[in-house]
Amino acid sequence: MTAAPGTPAATPRRNLPLLGRPPVERADAARNRRRILAAAAELVATRGVAALSMDEVAQAAGVGVGTVYRRFGDRAGLAYAVIDDRERRFQAAFLSGPPPLGPGADAHARLRAFLHALAERTDEQVDLLLMAELDSPAARFEQSYDVYHRHLVLLIRGAAPEADAVYLADALLAPFAANLVAHQRRTRGMSVERIKAGLDALISGLARSG
Questions:
Q1: CA 43, 45, 49, 50 torsion: positive or negative?
Q2: Is the entire prediction scored with pTM above 0.70?
Q3: What segment(s) does the record annotate as region Disordered (predicted)?
Q4: How far apart are CA 120 and CA 189, in angstroms?
């Protein structure tokens, strides 16, 4: 399949889920990795995926371009690494961070906080996530999706024990397809706050039944 304009050429798909600790690295290697990922994320945020360049990332990170190629292989590999880095932080926040996103709040509050945080997380990297879904449409339903689904099932069962939590978890995740979020934001002109308000409406029935 030909990649969409402005996206890196397709390469063998990298896994998106990032639960668990990153590989053990030397201190200097870990420092370079953080600098490279931060520089790549900033470049994508300010100029888009089409502007992602190994040379520019290396220059912004203050490392040699060979270091970037050795660590990430190619531009697509670097893009997936940026997704993975952000995903680790997001999962850590809802699994073990402070409430209401993390443990310690009631199920309704955590459900709302999770959906709001996922809306922000998806919007933040929508171009990179679009690239991942173009690379392999099945990727959306692997790894990170499974983590989100299991988390939502637990929250829905806490908020509404009689509900079909497995189905509703899929239904609540459906609005986060990257192509839909991009369409809402760019074609329909919806703000992230409007998307969050719509998500609140979706879970209001759960709140009443709970």
A1: negative
A2: yes
A3: 1-24
A4: 16
Angstrom distances, CA of residue 197 to CA of 91, 115, 171, 172, 193: 22, 10, 16, 13, 6
**Number of residues written out for the chain:** 210
Over residues 85-100, the pLDDT tens digits come to 899 999 999 999 999 9
Q: How many domains does the chain have?
A: 2
Residue keyed to tokens 């809402």? 184
125, 174: one domain: yes
Three-state DSSP state, 100: coil
In a domain, 187, yes or no: yes
Q: What CATH code is carried by the domain that includes residue 143?
A: 1.10.357
Question: Helix 75-96 vs helix 27-47: angle between axes, to the nearest 10 degrees?
Answer: 100
In a domain, 45, yes or no: yes
170 and 100 housed in the same domain: yes
Q: Using an 8 Å Cβ cutoff, are 77 and 9 in contact?
A: no
| Three-state SS at 53 | coil
Q: Which two tokens stand for residue 39?
A: 């520089």
